[in-house]
Amino acid sequence: MKGVIHPAESGKARWEREVLEPALARAPERPGPFTTISGRPIERLYTAEDVAGLDYARDIGHPGEYPYVRGIHPTGYRGKLWTMRQFAGFGTPEETNQRYKDLIAAGGTGLSVAFDLPTLMGRDPDHPLCLGEVGKCGVNITSLADMERLFEGISLADITTSMTINSPAPMIFAMYLVVAEKQGADWKKISGTIQNDILKEFIAQKEYIFPPRPSMRLITDIFGFCAKEVPKWNTISVSGYHIREAGSTSLQELAFTLRDGLEYVQYGVDAGLDVDDFVPRISFFFNSHSDFFEEIAKYRAARKLWADAMKHRFGAKNPRSWQLRFHTQTAGVSLTAQQPYNNVVRTALQALAAVLGGTNSLHTNSLDEALALPTKETATIALRTQQIIAHESGVTNVVDPLGGSYFVEKLTRDMEEGTLKYWEAIDRMGGMVEAIELGYPQKEIAEASYQFQQAVERREKVIVGVNDFVQADEKPIEILYIDDTTAERQLARLAELKRTRDHDRVQRALDGLRQAARGRDNTMPPLLECVRAYATVGEMCDALREVWGEYEETPVI
Amino acid sequence: MSQKIRVVIAKPGLDGHDRGAKVIARALRDAGMEVIYTGLRQTPEQIVSAALQEDADVIGLSILSGAHMHICPRVVELLKEKGLDDVQVVVGGIIPDQDVPKLNALGITGIFIPGTPMQEIVDFITGHARARV
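ok -> structure tokens follow
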């Protein structure tokens, strides 16, 4: 690396001959394999030779400067710490509202809403497929009335909210906007994020409703609407988290997620939007898994890949379009049901990797999440973990402390090159929508997930407490148990709502939505009218199901 | 090849997290079983009808959403109605300890939480699948 690390030959060959070989002769290394959790082989030692091809100014750069490998902020976390955003939601809107107030009181700095499966799938609680699902994995939101209960006593002008919602993102976002409006908050000033990333649903998480193309149209409608009406809103959080949880490697997570991002930008451009009008509001969401350095390299490479693609592939001129901002969540899939207290340690290491990789926002999982949704106590420990990293570890004093590490810079470069290869393959297929229709990313992930499981079975990969260091006499821990009263309550409320609202207004609003869906008008204004009329999530999604149909996948094993 | 154990792997409910279901489907197939994966969002009725059509010896349900105490009793009840009582039902996913005795009472003894070795599941199914005639 010119100008930073001495480019001279590091004498590795001499060292291997004179120092390493005699040492190995005396004491051989452990059998290995020395690979990352994604199966990437790792060398014994990295030296200046490994980064000799890198040019510091061109390939890395200082923090806050293109290509942003070292971060998008010149001051790192010395200016502003990352947002500590704990994902939460369960049961009724009132119960979740209370959890939010507890998290804010404990020092949480942003809200993050977890919805239940009926809401995520655009079904009202009285649909037969919702049996046993209401309020279980998140909070149930059926209509605007529930959204009003969810944010009761919380000023939307003063807090940012992230909402993990995808297929019904436009409906839920419209509800949020109407609640803000009723509170007197200015749409031009409020901020937050909707996940709104349908491509990773087709690839990994599988919470899709409509086919890919109308789904993409809903997303570009939001891009267009927000550029005018809600300019500070993050319109999409392009997500690798779920791709990784589904079993991808670290590289696949990076490559597929950023390629999804390129697809959204392309669809926005094709819909007639100017790149610099909507790209600055695109954000990302990555996983932080257990392989410390590979994760750090992933985040650093992500920033460079995005900056290069926006600048050169799309001709973006605004530096804000080049800057990749991302949220991170520690890896839920790495948590073990066995010896669950060990999960605090796993989460702390994963959180540290995210911070050293320059995350802008972070969720840390709770120790009991392989068993249930977290209790108030375990959710607090998870938040405290972030506070300890921020305020005790000292890592926030310096920007990108691992910059210049031979190993980290080489790994960052390898992640970048691997991603470009995946992109070439996907571009050849015609794009990500086409690749998904061919089942390509789905197959890649299923294969990686099976390979990893095989490695665990063979004990090539040790999972403490699961396939090694097992403890026979474990005592169960206390977990959050969600009973069925939520379903009963939400069903009663739905019946009450249908009795009391203006039936004709609801029908007119739903007709307006169908009409927009059949034509080319932006779907957000008719959705806002549906929400104001107290149409339910299920009714709004059904109106669109009538026009666009439902997607069904061919499973890939 | 009528000696092969026939397994229907199903994802009931609204959840789309299919990593476990797919890994186990492949592991059972590699262990020499005939595996039919139903895909996502199957109702208990669809699952039992698949078991009937496929002449299944075992139904494997993958449930992570907390809906197991609604879905499992319904599957067992429907199997009885169709005279398929001898089809062994196993469940994998996030199952709290307190629900295990209730599932056992339904005749479901193969309950596999995260971290269970695949070989343990293969062995359980091999030992408990209904005898083929």
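The longest strand of chain A covers residues 282-288.
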